[in-house]
Amino acid sequence: MPDFEWEDKFNAVTAGVDEAGRGPWAGPVAAGAVVILDRNLDEFLLKGLNDSKKLSALKREQLYEHLFAAEAKGQVAIGIGLASAQEIDETNILQATFAAMRRAVAQLKVQPQYALIDGNQNPRDFPCRSCTVVKGDAKSYSIAAASIVAKVYRDRLMCELARKYPHYAFEKNAGYGTSAHVAGLKTHGVTPEHRRSYKPIQKFLLEQAD
Fold first, then answer.
1. Residue 172: helix, strand or coil by DSSP?
2. What is the distance between the alpha carbons of residues 162 and 141, in angstroms, rounded to a whole number?
3. Each residue of 91-131: pLDDT tens digit?
4. Are 89 and 196 in contact (CB under 8 A)?
């Protein structure tokens, strides 16, 4: 379970940073950044915050709402950043993810002096000092909170894209390559929200060109 051990390593205002959506074939990659300013969070958050992948969709949604309620009370600061499918294609998914992370930190109302970044790759030109924490969303409250913010925000965004592009089941698969998504591609082709640099999408583009 997460705790504040990593935050306590630095005598500084510290943000947790995490991403969601590196693997999907469609939609943006999202990043969350969270600074916990007051550790006296409500019990639901302190007991519930964890790696977003280990939580049910309902629990993630509830924690997301509690985090924004805590932000309204001044207990946390939350930032969200995105990088579009087009940006992913123009740079690559890693650089687009780093860009989304920088944007998330820039959106914070309280700018951190240090950032804890989930994973093992540290972005260059970050707006503050930073270090990586492997599986950090299961170790640090700040990273766990950022994980949930990024995941829920992106899932909601994909539900909005599902209304614009209703044939790909984005509301269920969040852009991942499920059978319903593949069926939509075969019938309706590639949308502007698809990542054309990804090999499965390149394959569909080639088939469309034949």
1. helix
2. 32
3. 999 999 999 999 999 999 999 999 999 999 999 889 999 99
4. yes
